[in-house]
Amino acid sequence: MLNLFEIDEWKIIENGFTPSKQKQAESIFSIGNGSFGQRANFEEKYTGDSLQGSYVGGVYYPDKTRVGWWKNGYPEYFAKVLNSCNWIGINIEIDGFQLDLNTCEVKSFHRELNMFEGTLKRSFRCVFQNGKEIEVKSIRFCSMEREEIGAISYSITPINFSGNVKFSPYLDCKVMNHDSNYDEYFWDEDFHKIGIKKGIVCVKTKKTNFHVATAMRISFWKESELLDIHPNLVEREFYVENNFEYYLEKGVTHTLKKYVSVSSTINHSEFSYATIALNRVTKAYINGFDMLLAEHKAAWANIWSNSDIKIEGDSASQQAIRFNIFHLFQTYTGKNSKLNIGPKGFTGEKYGGATYWDTEAYCLPFYLKTAESKIARQLLVYRHNHLQKAIENAEKLGFKDGAALYPMVTMNGEECHNEWEITFEEIHRNGAIAFGIYNYVRHTLDEQYLVEYGRDVLVGIARFWAQRFNWSDDKKSYVMLGVTGPNEYENNINNNWYTNYLAKWCLTYSLEVENKFAKDNKVLLRSGEAEKWQHIIDNVYQPKKANSRVYLQQDGFLDKEQLIVSDIPQSELPINQHWSWDRILRSVFIKQADVLQGIYLFEDHFDKETIKENFEFYEPKTVHESSLSPCVHSILAATLGNKKMAYDMYLRTSRLDLDDYNHEADEGLHITSMAGTWMSVVEGMAGVRINEEGLFINPIIPETWKNYSFNMLFRGNPMTIKITQNTIEITNNSSSEIEATLFSEKIIIKSKETSNFSFNLFI
Amino acid sequence: MLNLFEIDEWKIIENGFTPSKQKQAESIFSIGNGSFGQRANFEEKYTGDSLQGSYVGGVYYPDKTRVGWWKNGYPEYFAKVLNSCNWIGINIEIDGFQLDLNTCEVKSFHRELNMFEGTLKRSFRCVFQNGKEIEVKSIRFCSMEREEIGAISYSITPINFSGNVKFSPYLDCKVMNHDSNYDEYFWDEDFHKIGIKKGIVCVKTKKTNFHVATAMRISFWKESELLDIHPNLVEREFYVENNFEYYLEKGVTHTLKKYVSVSSTINHSEFSYATIALNRVTKAYINGFDMLLAEHKAAWANIWSNSDIKIEGDSASQQAIRFNIFHLFQTYTGKNSKLNIGPKGFTGEKYGGATYWDTEAYCLPFYLKTAESKIARQLLVYRHNHLQKAIENAEKLGFKDGAALYPMVTMNGEECHNEWEITFEEIHRNGAIAFGIYNYVRHTLDEQYLVEYGRDVLVGIARFWAQRFNWSDDKKSYVMLGVTGPNEYENNINNNWYTNYLAKWCLTYSLEVENKFAKDNKVLLRSGEAEKWQHIIDNVYQPKKANSRVYLQQDGFLDKEQLIVSDIPQSELPINQHWSWDRILRSVFIKQADVLQGIYLFEDHFDKETIKENFEFYEPKTVHESSLSPCVHSILAATLGNKKMAYDMYLRTSRLDLDDYNHEADEGLHITSMAGTWMSVVEGMAGVRINEEGLFINPIIPETWKNYSFNMLFRGNPMTIKITQNTIEITNNSSSEIEATLFSEKIIIKSKETSNFSFNLFI
Fold first, then answer.
1. How many CB atoms neighbour CB A225 within 10 A?
2. What residues 416-475 of chain B have any CB closer than 8 A to a CB of chain A?
3. pLDDT per position as a tens digit, A91-141
4. Fewer CB under 10 Å: which end of chain B, C or N?
């Protein structure tokens, strides 16, 4: 389904209304500000197929898990991201007929998501059943400057009549989750109040007792003239509405402006949250739509200045990469350490939970290079806050003495996924969290973080691994039994190479850190612990193919029928939609990078030959049925100088949602994999690495691209790197000198200067 | 919780009413006749804790499965055994007060299950809130002679008053399953009718459309005098009731007799089922309670004559073994090839489904030696009837060309279990079904069955195995990946020794049968198929411990920490209630016999040393947390001459429910494991084997038993074997001579004669 919507470098555009695309559009045109977000549902009533979705960061419901047969240690709930108050609603009625694009005749329709300024716009003309035609123009945004504020400007122009139009802006918190396990309502009302041109509905979640206040104020305008209106007040449980009829002259535009504040007990006390919502919405109302919009655009401009990627010569790629960056910043802004990056962000309710290992493995590298370090730091603090829960989680599984196992999926630090083969066994996530700390430190050199927070987390994680390995008398090594690697098309395997390698690295790194800092700080390790860890480090079993450089994904991998993806008939792809689960499990096919994920993370531990042999062994067996897979292959292909493969894999990840490859964009977007897309340009194509030794750049450029360039931060210094077919152009936008290694050449770019290098010099 | 109820050789007795034991008692005192069954719920109203349960064989509801994340091939439903019409109900009221043992004062209480005659009796005295005291005596049974008939005699004697008593016999089909996944009603009403002293309620299941008619007739007696009564008729959806008040004189007993027919579309057409129920209940009513009871007792006497086991010197063992035999015959009588042996029989609703591999592995050997061969044959025909569904089941998993995979759990041939690690992977069940055919043929020499039915099933199963093995280039052998063996404390393992061995045997046996019969009958194998199978047979990988006779349960088994059960603190047993699932999975501990299960089945393939080494390796690692495990260990221990272990394991299985070891008797009994208990006496202690070469007897006797004896059939010939501490006494109750091998001595027992042998002669 190529090019679901129109291609534009800064916009997603839909011209003409296609109801069958509505749910996909609702996901793709979603807006958010890291604090709350909203699918691109219509403001006015819509009776066609739609997934109503409004989400408040950090607010969830512990839905009872559905399992066939409960066993010890199974999580008791699956945290659902909650569909919250519908704050966009504005019903329009003429002569008793509702404006509803499912029943009115739609004469024209234009919807656009402007990624540069962060706005969702719509304009359309439609004819009511009584023949009356209107034009509607709306624009809305979730303020990037004021994290609890949203605003809508909704204009109507009668085209072929003068007459009364009824406007009914409302707030409706009587909403359900489509994805509820047992079809329950998740909200109770706290209270609601209604007044002239204003209203508030305060609700709280069942069980978790999160309170969310949604407050609105409205104003009504004839062109630029503020009108006095006398609305009727409608209220019931969960619902407030102001409605009024107004006589509109033919051709004259009237505009309803709706200001909303969404304030919750994530940020405020139960005592004050409602008052704060009212105060903030009042302030927004007084400041007015134009001011809110201007400051919102300015905030977006600032984001883009650190993170934009330009691709010339391939507008589909250009649109896609900006789309991915845009949604990442809509989902997470690093303002609150209670928040994280849910797999669907604020674009849908599927999966539940907010935090997967995706955060550390994919999103963190993105924020580390595109935003101030404090933003990435918040993601790390989030995990530090959950350390005690991670220890409790490990205790539930029989571990002790401070061993920490971070959950596979979480909202508050507790595990909340349904499947034992994931929660109990896909423990490599624990390593990703340790790697995240390492990655943060090598990007920022912020050792203070290590001392204050990082060490505790590292030691907890290392303790888990030390207990999770067991000595095999048979192998005379430490083995790790019963795990699931990143490749979820295997379950409960022994000696997953990736997990063993990562675990060993965690022990090594934590020991290193302890050796460095325990002298001047608190001693964390118990007597004998370091020796035990070292013994494990020295004796970890790592399965390897005989007479080759290939690491084996797990014990017994070579017993499988050694097919490659091209052996599968096209009609049976993706295999997860065609093959039974057991067939997938015993097949050789790989859902997502596993050994290669490890080689990607620890690239500098392996020589090129090893990387190449493993890539050539695993790539043909990988079906990439996880959105997180192609980016890693793209980066490794780039590292190996395989431009075509790097580009093909980039394409596969970057337009995943825009072109809806997997037929699931209607449910929401793949937010975390978007970071992988960014990685495949910056780490892949441009070969950017940042570590203790500095900045390294090893670029390639796909043949179809004229040039590409991107903004990034290196230790707080903004810079722009532009790669053409012949040159590498590096601009230092900061006030300090920047040192880097281009290919293997040391270079220095002076403050505010641009340096040009020819590819020919290096290759 | 030892001796939950009183010990008696032929009875289970409860003296004194203990409400906290009521649900356990309801299970243990259950009655049934292979066609329908009833928990020991009270006839009169009871507001205390209770699990109402009335079950009709073969009638089920496809309850939507509960899974965290649905994957291809997952079964869509979990077949629930249905709680059906409450046919026992008789409410009693005096002066507006209900008889309810939860609220009345209970002065005495006696309940007994008479296993010899198959009746449930109750007598009690209680005092109503108004001080009136009555004595109640009831007796009920599900007729072993008339499979759709149940009858109740319910007598009341006023102790300290004369006055009116209200009797309200009723049928109530508005019942739910406690174990419903989504709290739904599973029944719709077809119709109901009510008349004087009679009524009928006809209901049908949602989705599956099974129709069940429950019809009643009542009579009322003063001592032995039939009284004329004029009941009030009460009817509503799902419900009919006759009620009447009668003046009872102090000290005079009045009796309500309630006759019931339970007729379903398992046996009858939708057109006729209601009429049949009415006809049958009328006939029962005319024949009268005493005649029904007499013929019922006679049927039970006949069953016992073929199957009884006597144990002298250990009355707990004696009671237990009869309890197990009794419940097996209450559950399955072989009259209908649509029925099978559910794990809870008619005693509870847990687990769902009717048919597990338990049937072939445990129950079939029991029926083969205790009942006419046609009864075991019905169990085989049942699977033959499901062959097409087994082929479809295999097709869903990607197999082809007639490969058949029988389901793990089924009602109608379709898979209906919740968990992928069981349905997809615990495929050894397929082998048990083939073994069942082999076992039937060696017991009966009924080769005609092989030709007409068995071959088809064997070939289908062998085809599955031939496809399920795959060639490993690494091992240069055929391997079987991703299975779960009988030991469900492992999941998704490679090369489970038991499964590989059994699969190889299936291929071998099916080839043998084809070689023998394909000449004179239809050719089933396709060209090349025999050669392919032979190649697999010759090259199956069987993991083995180096330098030993120990077969390895699976690849990598020796990588586990090699602990034994005595290493586990008592407080952590059973591990399934204390350890998280992943810890259990990666531990060395074995839920139930796995390698040893294979050695038990194919005992004659292995020398004593091999059996001994494997037993000594695995027994200490086995936690026996399946009810199906200890019996196999008991039999092998007996084979190895280990009397103490044989006895300990026997005890563990025989009183599992009577003493409620696992704290779950309230949910129903472990019916299929009861057959294992019988096996541990006959196959274990007495060492009885029947194969193509005849009857073999190798007895031992536990030191605490004075003697034990049992009735059995050898190729249709009834015989009794009695073992004392010194002698073996064999009685041939048949009209033919019986040949056998006692230890290794050939012996002949003449018709109607008893031969005595001294142990000393042999040992």
1. 8
2. 417-421, 424-425, 470-475
3. 999 999 999 999 999 999 999 999 999 999 999 999 999 999 999 999 999
4. C
CA atoms of A438 and A508, how far apart (whole Å):
12
Catalytic residue among B117, B360, B488, B619: B488
Contact B68 A417 (CB under 8 A): yes
Residue B640's SS3 state is: coil
DSSP H helices, B87-183, are none
Distances (CA, A) of A54 to A31, A258, A336, A545, A617: 10, 16, 19, 50, 45
pLDDT class for A1, splitting at 50, 70, 90? very low
Please judge whether A474 and B424 are an interchain contact, meaning their C-beta atoms are less than 8 angstroms apart.
no
What are the φ and ψ backbone dihedral angles of B14, each rounded to 5 degrees? -120, 120
Question: Hey, are the CB atoms on B580 and A425 less than 8 Å from each other?
Answer: no
Lowest mean pLDDT among A82-86, A527-531, B78-82: B78-82
Q: Which of A398, A579, A583 sits opposite B583 (nearest CB)?
A: A398
- Ordered by start, the domain boundaries in chain A are 18-304
Q: How many CB pairs under 8 A join A and B?
A: 149
What is A18-304's CATH topology? Beta-galactosidase; Chain A, domain 5 (2.70.98)
Cis ω before B620 (30° cut-off from 0): no
- B-chain residues near A470 (CB < 8 A): 559-561, 586
Measure CB to CB from residue A561 to each of B470, B475, B561 and give the nearest one: B470
Reported as a single tens digit per residue, the pLDDT across B76-121 is 778 888 999 999 999 999 999 999 999 999 999 999 999 999 999 9
pLDDT tens digit sequence for B318-369: 999 999 999 999 999 998 889 999 989 999 988 776 799 999 999 999 999 9
Per-residue model confidence (pLDDT) at position B77: 78
- Tokens for B408, please give them: 């793990």
Tokens 């099978």 -> residue: B340
Which token pair is B735? 């009209």
The dihedral formed by the CA atoms of B659, B663, B666 and B672, expressed in degrees to the nearest 10: -70
Q: Do A472 and B66 touch (CB under 8 A)?
A: no
Q: How far apart are CA A368 and CA A306, in angstroms?
A: 11
For chain A, positions 606-625, list CB contacts with chain B under 8 A.
none
Whether residues B586 and A481 touch (CB distance < 8 A) is answered with: yes
Q: How far is CA B556 from the centre of its chain?
A: 35
C-alpha A4/C-alpha A12 separation (Å) is 10
A189 is catalytic: no
pLDDT in tens, B233-242: 999 999 999 9
Residues of A in contact with B585 (CB under 8 A): 424, 482, 492
State residue B67's pLDDT score. 66
| CA A136 – CA A158 distance, rounded (Å) | 9
Cβ(A403)–Cβ(A463) below 8 Å: yes
Q: Which CATH architecture has domain B13-67+78-304?
A: Distorted Sandwich (2.70)
- C-alpha distance from B511 to closest chain A C-alpha (Å): 26
Res. B1: pLDDT tops 70: no
Mean pLDDT of A434-451: 97
Convert the pLDDT of each residue in B330-344 to its tens digit.
999 998 889 999 989
Chain B interface mutation, best of A77, A399, A487, A492, highest count of B Cβ atoms under 10 Å? A492
Q: Looking at the complex, report in whole angstroms how far the Cα of residue A97 sits from the nearest Cα belonging to chain B.
A: 40
Which residue out of A488, A514, A667, A683 is catalytically annotated? A488
A69 touches B at CB < 8 Å: yes
Of B66, B71, B481, the CB nearest to A559: B481
Using pLDDT thresholds of 50, 70 and 90, give the confidence band for residue B2: low
How many CB atoms sit inside 10 A of residue A739's CB?
12
A585 touches B: beta carbon within 8 Å: yes
